[in-house]
Structure formats: structure tokens, C-alpha cells
User: Fold Tryptophan synthase beta chain from Amycolatopsis keratiniphila.
Amino acid sequence: MAERTKYILDEADMPTRWYNVVPDLPEPPPPPLHPGTREPVGPDDLAPLFPQALIAQEVSTERYIDIPDEVLDVYRLWRPSPLFRARRLEKALGTPARIYYKYEGVSPVGSHKPNTAVPQAFYNAAEGVTRLTTETGAGQWGSALAFASATFGLECEVWQVRASYDQKPYRKLMMETFGAKVHPSPSELTESGRAILAADPDSTGSLGIAISEAVEQAAQAENTRYALGSVLNHVLLHQTIIGEEALKQFELAGDTPDVLVGCTGGGSNFGGLAFPFLREKLAGRMDPVIRAVEPAACPTLTRGKYAYDFGDTAGLTPLLKMHTLGHDFIPDPIHAGGLRYHGMSPLISHIYELGLIDAIAIGQEDCFAAGVRFARTEGIIPAPEPTHALAACIQEALRCKETGEEKVILTALCGHAHLDLPAYGAYLAGNISDHALPDEALEKSLAGLP
Amino acid sequence: MAERTKYILDEADMPTRWYNVVPDLPEPPPPPLHPGTREPVGPDDLAPLFPQALIAQEVSTERYIDIPDEVLDVYRLWRPSPLFRARRLEKALGTPARIYYKYEGVSPVGSHKPNTAVPQAFYNAAEGVTRLTTETGAGQWGSALAFASATFGLECEVWQVRASYDQKPYRKLMMETFGAKVHPSPSELTESGRAILAADPDSTGSLGIAISEAVEQAAQAENTRYALGSVLNHVLLHQTIIGEEALKQFELAGDTPDVLVGCTGGGSNFGGLAFPFLREKLAGRMDPVIRAVEPAACPTLTRGKYAYDFGDTAGLTPLLKMHTLGHDFIPDPIHAGGLRYHGMSPLISHIYELGLIDAIAIGQEDCFAAGVRFARTEGIIPAPEPTHALAACIQEALRCKETGEEKVILTALCGHAHLDLPAYGAYLAGNISDHALPDEALEKSLAGLP
Assistant:
């Protein structure tokens, strides 16, 4: 029998608790502020948007939170997800490094997003909510919430960034097949959308605008709440099942990571993998370098400002202390739609400020080159988002080739590219450029900070 | 803990042999004939098209054939595949039936096709072949062979039915990302293609025409062989890993199927699931009804003729005794591209003639209704092909609801619909009709039989 390439947990060994990194940090993250009073927001401020259970998780200082049975029951459709050793990629690179990837593309919608969509839909349904609103860029999050809403019998209404709505019809069709309603954003359905369209009738939208529309609807309509696919503490909490599983799988593999890399947009994929390993690091049980990888076109951690900013464009959300490019920022239309958010999870921003993780930015061309290399060796075509992490993985593995170090590298392959194949088509046709964010554009956008 | 919905085998329990049903049948299937002499073809006739190892498997009378380690090693990227109990669908139907589905969408390309693409690429590479040619309709098979070819370092050249090439660019992009070359068929690159284009410059092609082109290329070019994704004995042999796994998983579930349904195009998904269960049935260890489900627009088993016919349109292949609509048949452009072949696996045709399986045909509307119902309950959007089997499953489950029978139903969910979402879009928009094959069209096509 050949050497193992895949590590699967028994269902019985699937984690039954999410991990909250907050109580293990040397200091707590700065709280969200009310934009009027600039006082910390309380549960009452958030109640129009989220159910009580999620608000409690958002501010929890408990280290572990039990996963409800109803959520575990849905997770079992695709979890535990596999951990792979990328032996074919290692061989192709000629590296002495050992590369592992945790693969979340096995979920029904092909990404890690259902890990939080399912509990969010569950808690809302349990509190009598009948309709969820949300935003989506390329559509990974929207389709995850559409799937989760169908599972718990909720209506689901999605504002999709117009650029993606027009150019990537497959995700919209997936959401509709699950029974969701999808609107291009900016739309005429909300005040926020109408204001944007009045200023620019041809606006192709942004995540920030779409969030404004979904939040506005949730705040106004009956039995309706809002669901966010990244950024917030409770979202990252739900994603920690990725890292908890990976820790158990590393035990099966008899190995320990030296370097952990994950792509960051809002931070949920990265946090989901990294936080359980950060706990181990803080406890002195292992000492991995933990590295966030972001697109050069939207370099929140590496070039953004650590400041209080709105989560959305219209300024309807609380102020979040985070690395931000400014809430007016509209990124170049790079293909990694999930990494185009102007801000970064406040929790990850705080952890970065504490010096517990590092961050790099990579351009699109290197990312797609890594994606094609990975597809032709490992057989899975990675979504554009995780190609950023794979590019960083390959950088590290090639450094090991030079130094002879047998480093153990772990990355999160948070989704496949079945619905992003035109991006690969553009790359193969030579129509991809790097789009690093120009200094002037950054300065202009940061000037809009509150 | 909730009741189990997923049955996963340990990698160590993955079958290491394929099952050949031929020696267990009451009489052997009629042999392929040379179209000139009408004598049974020998290995030498097939050598320009296939490597020796596959020719040996095609005519083997051994009950079991060992799966090479190199193939097992690639299978492990996604196998063993899960068996699911469809508890949410059962509940939505209110049926006392227990519905199980074996899910092959977990493969890198999202279907069961890599189960045979991988061994075909392996055996070719092992015999020094450097390039494979093939045809593909919607592209499931082409992308599977592109993936397998990348894995074993082979060039891969695919003739894709023009209708799909034009309308479904995602599959082409997937093939290209894996490094394959894709041509629309009919093409100017082959004599067969040029002949079709001379007669009809606007031809949108058919699987039969694309096979002619790929076969012609393989027969003429150096170190080049042809690979077929269904129909032939060795292809169905490789797919039996599906049924062998499912048998073991039913042991885990402590259940036995009463009814087994699978969709049939060329027959590889159906045969792969059904043959190991047929072995058990013939040995008297269980007694499931085994049912093939085909589209009403391409009703090979239910309305075709059991006769010797060509596998392709130009008449380059041996004559195969099979249920056929005539090799000139060009089906209506229904969305289940994988079920539009004019013929049927000779082995399945023979088994049908022996009365060991039954067959029904279902129209597109019922199939998509079943697909949407399945997506919104079970969370997986099924490819258009297996919606045929799901529609039959639901029929049976609703009969059980009337009679109160607690039947155990097993179906093969051979792929997901990520690359077929426009078909769901058409259904949701009310633009799907049933397209049952008219009698006149059938008569005209059968008249062309040799």
C-alpha cells in the first residue's frame, strides 16, 4: 500500500465544540463602537440584526461553545473534511518540505462557508426568524446561506455585487435552485442602493454597498435578520471546526506544522484554520509561523490602516476597529471575489497587531500560476481565493528546496473553482494582470475614514 | 447523537478488486463483430485503439481483477465515496421507504467518470502511450480524462460535441486547466468531421460523430490511443468499485436494498452500481429489483432495437450487439448530455434481454422537479443525469407511501450540477419541456441500422 495522502476522521471524532480564541489572547480586542455615541455597542444595539444566541457568541469570553446537535447533523453531510498530504505537488516542486492541505471544497456548495451558514440559519430559525438577508460578492457566501436556509425552512434574500451578478450567473442560479431570491446590488429596493444609483447609475457595486442594503432590509422588515459570512467573531468561531479537525488529523499523520498559511478576505477561512493552532502556540505546545495571505489589489493587513471604520459603505453598521482600506474603497475587479472586502476581521486585525501572525500580499498572476500547478498535480482546481495561500505555500516550499529544510506546511484549501472557471480561462489566455493597489488610490480611500 | 445519515468506509476497507459480471451470467454476451467480415473481433483489431491491458479486461472471463496500486493511490484522493441515507428527503415525501444514495460527486471533477479515466490513463501510460484522444458531450467524461491524463503525464485531446462546446464553456475551461486540448466536433481536423461538415456546415454534432473523430485520430497518430467513457466492458468493470463500496456500506447500515435505480446513458454509472448487487442477486443472497432509468428523449432500452450497430456515426468501430436508436440518431438537445448516446452498453443490453433488470423512461420536467426537491432537502444539487434516477426513486417512495411498504431504495447520485446550473435556471424559468422521442423520428433512425 502506498503512503497515505488523505487523513479522514471518524464521524465520532468530529469536534462537538467551537473554539473561541478571545479568552486565550494576552489582551482582549477593542469593542465595536456605536457610530453616534462612540460608546461600545451592547446586545440591544445588535438585536435588530442578529438573534440573541449569535449576539451572545459575538461577545462571549467562554473558551469553548457547544455545537448544537441540529447543526452537527447538517455538518455530517460533508464533515469531517479531509486533510491531504500534497505528495504530488511536493514531488513536482522537488521540495523536502511536507505540504498538507485541509480541503473544504467537499461541502455541498464547494467552500468553507456552510460551516457558519448552517449555525446562523439554525439559531435564527430557533428564535422564530423566518427570513434572512445577506450580501454576497462572487456568490460563495450567498449560496452557502441559501443552502442553509433551505435546510431550516427560512426564506433567504441575497444582494449580490452587480459586477458578479452580471458576470457570474452560475452562483446566482445555485442560490435560486436552493430557493433564494437574488438581487443585483446596488438595487432600487433599498435607500442605500438608491443613493448609490443616484450618484452613479452604472455602479457595479461592492461588498460594502451590498452589506448596507441587506442590513437596511433586515433592520426594517418583520421577522427578518441579517447574516454575515465573515469578519465578525461568531462567524470565525463557527469556522474553527476546520482547525480543530486539522489538529486531530495531524495527530493521525504524526506530524506538526511549522508554517500555516491561509488566504484572508474578511478572515473567516484563515481564522477558522489558524485559531486552534494559535491556541496550541500560545500554550507552548507547538510553534508554527502563522501567515495571512491577501491579494495585492486589496492589501488590508499589509497596507491598510488599523482604525475604527464602518463595516459597510453607507455607515449603517457599528464602527469596528480593524485593518481597513476605508469603507469607500472599491477594489479592482480581481477574480478572487471573496478577498475584495475593504476591511478585515477585528479579531484577526487585533491578533496581527499583537504580533502573533504575519501577513503578505501576492498578485493575481502568481496566484493563478499556483492554482494551475496545483490542479495538474493534485487534481483539484482551487478557487481563486485559496490560490493566494497556495502561492505562499509554494514560495515556502521552494525556499525549503534551497535550504534543505524539511518544513511542514499547512494550508486551507477553502474551496474549488467549479464556478470560477472563467477566471482560469482568462489566465490561460494571458488576460490576467497583477493589479497591485496604487498608492494614490489607497491614500484617497483612507482619507474617507470616520 | 442523531441517527446516521452518512456511511464512510475506512480507506483500508476500500475494495482492491473490480468485479466482472460476465462469468456470473447465465449466458455470455454476444461478441463485437468486425464490420467487414462480421466475424468476432480479436485483440489485434482493437490494438490500434486500446492498450493490451484494457483489451484483456474487455474480453476477460475472470470474476475479479486487481486494481493496480498506482490507481488505488489516485482513487484515494476522493474514495471511498460516501453512502448517504436521504432522511430529509424521506421526511419531505412522508414515505416509510428508506432511501440511500451513493454519492460520486466528491471526485475532483464532480462525477463518477474518474473511476475509469484513472485506470485507462494508467494502463496507457504503462504501455508507453503518450497521448489519448476522446470525445465528450456535456464534458463530464472529457474533464475526467483530462484530470487523469495530467496525473499520469499524458497529453489529452478531446472532441467535444459542438452544441455543448458552444453552450457550456465551463467544462472546456476545466479540461484546459488540466492541460487538455479541446476541439469542437465536428471539426476540420479529421476526415469524419470534414465529411459531416461538408453535408451540414452548421452541424451541432453528436457523441457518435465525436467518437468517430477521436477514434480516427487515435488509429492514425503515433503513440496515441483512444479512451471511451462508457459502453464497453472494461469501462463498466472499473465503475464496479461504486457497487462494491456500496455493498460494504449497506453492511455498516445493517440494511439491504429492495429496489436499486440508476440512470443510463452508455451504462457505466448504472452498471458500476448495479453489477455487484446483481452478483448478490444471482447468488441468492439478496433480491433487489434493479431498474435502469433513461430520458424519454433518448429511450435506448425501452424503445430501441436490440441489434448489431456501430458505436459511432462514421462506422469506424466494431459492430456491437446492443439496444440502439440507430447510429445516425441525433437526440433533442436535452440537458442531460451524458444520457444522449444512441446506443447502450452491450453488457447491460444483454442483461436486460436476460430479464435480470427492468427499465423505464422519464421526461425532463419530472427529472428537474426531482432535482430541485432533492437540492432543497438533501443540500446537493444533482447533475441532470442522476435526476432521472432520483425521479424514479421518488416515484417508488411515493408508491410506498400509498402501500405503507418500508422498501429500501438505493440510487447512484453520480455527480453534482455545479457546471450544469443553467439547466436548473431554464427549469426554474419554466423553459424545460419533456421532448419525448416521436415515433417517426425513431423509425427513421432505426432504418439506418446496418
Observations:
- Chain B has 18 helices and 15 strands.
- The longest strand of chain B covers residues 155-161.
- The domain at 78-110+233-446 of chain B is CATH 3.40.50.1100 (Rossmann fold).
- The mean pLDDT of chain B is 95.
